[in-house]
Design goal:
39% of the residues lie in helices and 20% in strands. With 323 residues, the chain is α/β, with parallel strands linked by helices. The chain binds ligand PBG and zinc ion.
Length: 323
Amino acid sequence: MNLLDRPRRLRTNPAMRELTAETSVEARHLITPHFVVEGSGVREEIGSMPGVHHVSVDNLVKEVGEDLKLGLKSHLMFGIPNDKDEHGDSALAAGNPCEAGVKALKKEFGDDVITITDVCLCAYTSHGHCGFLENGKVVNDPSVEQLAKMALNHAQAGVDIVSPSDMMDGRVGAIRDKLDSEGFTDTAILAYSAKYASAYYGPFRDACDSAPQGDRKSYQMDPRNGREAIIETLLDLQEGADMVMVKPALAYLDIIRRVREEVLCPVVCYNVSGEYSLVKNAAVAGLADEAAMVRENLLAFRRAGADIIITYHGREALTKGWI
Ligand code: PBG
Ligand code: ZN
């Protein structure tokens, strides 16, 4: 054949493919989530998420110490309290797992670690909603006030980045105001901007015992909507977000791409629990080449436009050389 262009030339061998690859995933792109419980000496595997554990702060410090050796510097903490009530007041209790986790990590590792805390009420409320429930409705403005207090509490503990995942309107602005008025002008905000009402959060809700009464459709986004992701993202940036997030990731690659084209700040995606468990359980059942699948998924997020990926696969992927 008389072909001028032969794209296969650049795929000839591994070295040539390495030279011409457009995308890569590195440890520095990854954020590792942790489920932090009260007490000490706890390290229990979460049934719905093989390979992921509930840890108390002492074991959190050990795990993060190992992660740092792999180059995983950024750690997102979800606090799981013993006590839940109507308003999620245990989110503000002295020594709560997020606050204790931040203090312990910063004491041990200083600026070698980036601490990030989830700011949301669903793990702390008895009804499992991300805000206050009044007459069967999740009310916005009183919830925002509580969330801002929670963010301040984390900032006082020394967190580097607070990450509101509640999807109440105006919470990023309220948190920014609160932090600034108390002198925490350097505490960054990673906003869950385009967070969808997704079936892929199931294993996480098991882990946090946070399945809501009813559903979250009055505050999380409708999977039918794409433009709305841009509205939410631009609002969060106007209110002072430093980074924005799309969540989940795999079923929302188009949204990652659209947000990427719309903003200049770092775009983060959350490779959520249900996405993790799908791959993990397929591997456990011998149905998939886990290494190749994890690598392909992580690359897809980067190719779609994510700068940063929150994922449960990071530690294993780096330990076993998958990325
Ligand atoms: C709660 C929250 C959820 C996740 C992160 N923060 C679940 C939810 O909204 O029900 C999901 C993370 C995951 O599935 O890995 N605000
Ligand atoms: Zn929540």
